[in-house]
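Escalation from tier 1.

The customer reports that the assembly of three entities below gives different structure tokens on two consecutive runs. Tier 1 could not reproduce it. I'm attaching the input and our single run for tier 2 to review.
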Amino acid sequence: MAIAVFIVFGLLAIAGGVGVITFHQPIRSVLSLVVVMLSLSVLFLLLSAQFVFVVQIIVYAGAVMVLFLFVIALLGPARETGPGRLRFQTGLSSLFVLAFFGLLYAMLQGVQYRQPDHTDLNVFGTVQSIAVGLFTTYLYPFELTSVLLLVAAIGAIYLSRRDES
Amino acid sequence: MSDLYKDPIGHWVVVVLAMAVVLFVLLTATAYTVWFERVALGHIQRRPGPNRVGPWGLMQLAADGIKLAFKESFVPAKTDRVIYVIAPTIAVAAAFLAWAVIPIGLWYNVQYWIADVNVGVLLIFAVSSLNVYAIVLGGYASNNKYSLLGGLRSAAQLISYEMAMGLSLVPTFMIVGSLRLRDIVDYTVHWGPYTGPIPLILLTPIGFLIYMIAAVAETNRTPFDLPEAEQELIGGFLTEYSGLKFVMYYLAEYVNVITASALATLLFFGGWYLWVVPPVLAFFLKVVFFVFVYIWLRGTFPRLRYDMLMRLGWKVLLPLAIVNVIVTGVIIVLVQG
Amino acid sequence: MADEPKKPERENQSVLDDIGALAKGLKTTLGEYFSPQVTTEYPEEKSPRSERYRGRHYLRRYDNGLERCIGCELCAAACPVGCILVIAAENSDENRVSPGERYAKTYEINMLRCIFCGYCEEACPVQAIVLGPEYELSDTSREKFIYTKEKLLEPLPPDVQARLDSRPHPDPLPPAGEGKT
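Tier 1 run:
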């Protein structure tokens, strides 16, 4: 059962990813990205990570992608203009893709799917267990991240402010 | 029953049956919510509302449905056909999905739900956040400036009020210590001689207030119905929709209203507990009450201007919700500590 | 002394006042909810027509059964949309239809054209044509809207008849049979 779900949503995620780079209309690309996000959330659920599953939907599908959509809707249904490719782009990109796959293959050697050694699946991935992790073991990185986001927010406001002069 | 539930195939049979029942009940409830709204609005304006089709006009929705079903399925020119057709289905799917995790108390200690998820409330938020897509995509795909503006307004509105709505519920979760809706309803206190479930509104009244206001905005209802502000935007994202596609949006809106009312009941008003009233009836009455509150608000307040809406969301509700979380946290620490 | 410009009320208004205003609004609508309705359930109950309401036309008769219309065509002349057709014929002693010299052999009103202005009623020297209170005139074919003389000669509703009978001024022509023309 789980493997069937994994295959279906894994393929959906890949199809979405391909869609992002092949569609010519920006809105289709965005929707493909939404499909990727939703498929990934299901994969998280398969890993018993309920909280991450929900947050993936709320944050990425529900908020981030909507902002993408917002921008594209404002710009109108413009098509991608011209090919505008670099001269060596095709060759270079295939080279990089090959290198990346080689790297992936080398790193994934010997990795196998298995159950975690000692985990109570009733607790793992719940809000409570994640909260305990965030606010005890990983408190310092968590707070640092939030400060980083705050800096980014303030920076964005500063950059977008109108020149008063 | 529990044996059947543990059996893998029996489990699926039960779940599918449960889904069918929920779908049927919800569709019926939606039809009568629309009827109830029209009658109640009528009474507020001192007129009877629909009373011609069937006894007390109860068959009005059937008549409307038949009329809409037989309309031409029209797609405006130069639109993105695929997205135009998909958008309303997203609305309906998102609206119904939320009911997967909403428990309904049938009798004392007998509850009914499709999925008893640890992150229940969050899942409802996740699903309802997908509702934005229906509106934005519908507005975008209609190839109409009013639709587009309505869709964009709605996107901004829903994202803004989702924050306040989520934060308004955090105190509840802090008090109960669970996101599971069943745990929240069953939350019991020992208050002097009384031991038993209490409506959580007594503990987080501010949270309830913020939730109600944000929920009105989330469901795009008056006074926050800017996405379809008739006077300025014709019909907003609905402008180009007709026939069954329009029905889908309409259905989704009313299912969302019922969902929001059911959530208010479960989170703040003790769900199916009400003195000696049988649980199902108690739940039903409470939901109907909140639906009425929605209609009452609609019949009373004029629509907010866009900047007022944003100001209310970001400068009033959000800070209030954050302060509420902090104050509740301090009180919990003091009481426990 | 010039009027002081009124201070905007917002100046000394607190959040509590705002909430109070909202609550007042809610109270008002709830009060309306339980107030009696003012709707007239139209097809079953009808709102009263005024005495001067201009609905469908009637041609009147004298008490002795003679038609009032003398075929003078003043109504047709007065009609701003030309929806009245009158073809007059001579009265004779064998065939006396109206007390005057002539009577209307044909009298038709095209109700699709009529604008219910009532000028025909004003123009009529013998008060033969009157506009009654009926306003539900819809029908299923255009031909049925040409009201012929038979249809127009239908008796008036009794209350309208009684009202017309009690008009203070006398009829200009005496009913035939008493004096002789």
